[in-house]
Write a structure and sequence with these properties.
With 88 residues, the chain is α+β, with helices and mostly antiparallel strands. It has one domain: Double Stranded RNA Binding Domain (2-Layer Sandwich). Helix content is 44%, strand content 17%. The chain has three helices and three strands. It has helices at 35-50, 52-66, 75-82, and strands at residues 5-10, 16-21, 27-29. A three-stranded antiparallel beta sheet has the order 1-2-3, with helices on one face. Strand 1 and strand 2 form a beta hairpin. The longest helix has 16 residues, at 35-50.
Protein backbone atom coordinates (compact mmCIF):
# COMPACT_ATOMS: atom_id res chain seq x y z
CA UNK A 1 0.00 0.00 0.00
CA UNK A 2 1.47 3.34 -1.05
CA UNK A 3 1.14 6.32 1.23
CA UNK A 4 1.11 9.94 0.14
CA UNK A 5 2.83 11.45 3.19
CA UNK A 6 6.09 10.38 4.77
CA UNK A 7 7.82 11.55 7.92
CA UNK A 8 11.33 12.98 8.17
CA UNK A 9 13.35 14.28 11.09
CA UNK A 10 15.51 17.37 10.65
CA UNK A 11 18.01 17.55 13.50
CA UNK A 12 19.59 20.68 12.05
CA UNK A 13 16.26 22.54 12.18
CA UNK A 14 15.87 22.35 15.94
CA UNK A 15 15.07 18.65 16.00
CA UNK A 16 11.61 18.92 14.44
CA UNK A 17 9.62 16.43 12.40
CA UNK A 18 8.42 17.28 8.92
CA UNK A 19 5.80 15.78 6.65
CA UNK A 20 6.73 15.30 3.00
CA UNK A 21 4.02 15.07 0.33
CA UNK A 22 5.28 12.48 -2.15
CA UNK A 23 3.12 13.88 -4.98
CA UNK A 24 4.21 17.51 -4.76
CA UNK A 25 7.50 17.18 -2.87
CA UNK A 26 6.32 19.88 -0.44
CA UNK A 27 7.74 19.63 3.08
CA UNK A 28 5.65 20.92 6.00
CA UNK A 29 6.77 21.27 9.61
CA UNK A 30 4.68 19.40 12.17
CA UNK A 31 5.98 21.74 14.92
CA UNK A 32 6.82 18.82 17.18
CA UNK A 33 9.94 16.99 18.29
CA UNK A 34 7.88 14.10 19.69
CA UNK A 35 8.14 11.07 17.39
CA UNK A 36 4.90 9.42 18.53
CA UNK A 37 2.91 12.60 17.99
CA UNK A 38 4.47 13.10 14.55
CA UNK A 39 3.67 9.51 13.53
CA UNK A 40 0.03 9.94 14.61
CA UNK A 41 -0.30 13.10 12.52
CA UNK A 42 1.26 11.44 9.46
CA UNK A 43 -0.95 8.37 9.84
CA UNK A 44 -4.08 10.52 10.20
CA UNK A 45 -3.24 12.43 7.02
CA UNK A 46 -2.62 9.21 5.09
CA UNK A 47 -5.91 7.71 6.31
CA UNK A 48 -7.76 10.90 5.36
CA UNK A 49 -6.21 10.70 1.89
CA UNK A 50 -7.28 7.06 1.39
CA UNK A 51 -10.81 7.36 2.77
CA UNK A 52 -12.18 10.91 2.40
CA UNK A 53 -15.84 9.88 2.81
CA UNK A 54 -15.10 8.05 6.06
CA UNK A 55 -13.15 11.09 7.26
CA UNK A 56 -16.20 13.29 6.65
CA UNK A 57 -18.41 10.93 8.66
CA UNK A 58 -15.93 10.93 11.54
CA UNK A 59 -15.88 14.75 11.51
CA UNK A 60 -19.68 14.85 11.62
CA UNK A 61 -19.66 12.47 14.59
CA UNK A 62 -17.19 14.69 16.47
CA UNK A 63 -19.33 17.78 15.81
CA UNK A 64 -22.52 16.00 16.87
CA UNK A 65 -20.81 14.92 20.09
CA UNK A 66 -19.79 18.46 21.00
CA UNK A 67 -22.83 20.39 19.72
CA UNK A 68 -26.15 18.82 20.66
CA UNK A 69 -28.19 21.23 18.50
CA UNK A 70 -26.41 20.52 15.22
CA UNK A 71 -29.14 18.20 13.93
CA UNK A 72 -31.92 20.69 14.74
CA UNK A 73 -30.51 23.81 13.04
CA UNK A 74 -31.48 24.99 9.57
CA UNK A 75 -29.81 27.28 7.05
CA UNK A 76 -32.10 30.06 8.25
CA UNK A 77 -30.46 29.83 11.69
CA UNK A 78 -27.05 30.34 10.06
CA UNK A 79 -28.27 33.32 8.03
CA UNK A 80 -29.83 34.89 11.13
CA UNK A 81 -26.55 34.47 13.03
CA UNK A 82 -24.51 36.43 10.46
CA UNK A 83 -27.15 38.93 9.41
CA UNK A 84 -26.09 42.55 9.92
CA UNK A 85 -28.43 45.50 10.31
CA UNK A 86 -28.41 47.65 7.15
CA UNK A 87 -26.73 51.04 7.33
CA UNK A 88 -29.23 53.85 6.86
Amino acid sequence: MNTRYRLIFRGIRGGMYYLVDKETGKRTSLHTANEDEARQIAEAKNIAERQPILNLQIAKAYIAGTDSGINMRTWQDAIDAVEVDPIL
